[in-house]
Amino acid sequence: MKSHGKSKFISASSSLAKFYRRIFVAVIFSIAAVSLSAAEATNTYAKWIKPWMEQPAVSPTLNGAGLKLVVTSVRGEVDEAAVTAMTPVQRIYLSYHLKVAATEVATNGNFRSYVVSNTYAEPGEVRQLSPEDSLQLDQLLAKLPEDNSQLPPAGNRIVLQMFADGQWRVRVYDGANLPSEVKAVLSLLAKPADKLF
């Protein structure tokens, strides 16, 4: 039984690692232009969020439960001009130093935070939202401001994915200048700790 549980954990970790490797590639190679027109900026946004739009709607680390929300912190990116000037080796180095942490919230109220690097995925313990917190979370998500399909500055982006009507809705915010509703979501999921990530 123990070995079965271990193989399930390895399989779940492997799925997370594969998903976030796709995000690493998207982050590094979707920001190649130094100067962007409005149309190009929208296209860059669409490319950047593509891995989040294609994420499965179930969580391997929550026993296959359906997801309602994923909150992801992406730190360590650099701006377009810096990526354009990098050598291939420098880009690979950057991909190994991106810091990604996320929290998945299932429809049943279970949620779990994890840290993912280019080489491993490390899930934390499963927690449970109280009915009151679950209701408050739904109210906050309904009031999230639009991101206007514009990427905030690289370096500290917070991504919120909400699954509804068979598809993901994605918003990307500046971690250094978060709207109050996003701060409230992070604080709610961080209880009883002080920080979510």
Number of helices: 6
Average pLDDT taken over every residue: 80
Output the helix-strand order.
Answer: HHEEHHEEEEHEEH
Give the class from helix and strand content and strand pairing: alpha+beta
User: What is the end-to-end distance?
Assistant: 32 Å
Name a few traits of the molecule.
eight-stranded antiparallel sheet, disordered N terminus, 197 residues, 41% helix, alpha+beta
Could you explain how this protein is built, in words?
With 197 residues, this protein is an alpha+beta fold. It has one domain (2-190). Helices cover 41% and strands 25% of the residues. Strands 1, 2, 3, 4, 5, 6, 7 and 8 form an 8-stranded antiparallel beta sheet that branches. α5 (131-142) packs antiparallel against α6 (180-190). It is globular. The chain starts with a helix and ends in a 7-residue tail after the last helix.
What's the structural blueprint in terms of helices and strands?
Elements: H1 2-29, H2 38-53, E1 58-59, E2 65-75, H3 80-85, H4 88-95, E3 99-106, E4 110-116, E5 121-123, E6 127-128, H5 131-142, E7 156-164, E8 167-174, H6 180-190
Antiparallel strand pairs: 1-2, 2-3, 2-7, 3-4, 4-5, 4-6, 7-8
Would you summarize the structure shown here?
By secondary structure, this protein is an alpha+beta fold.
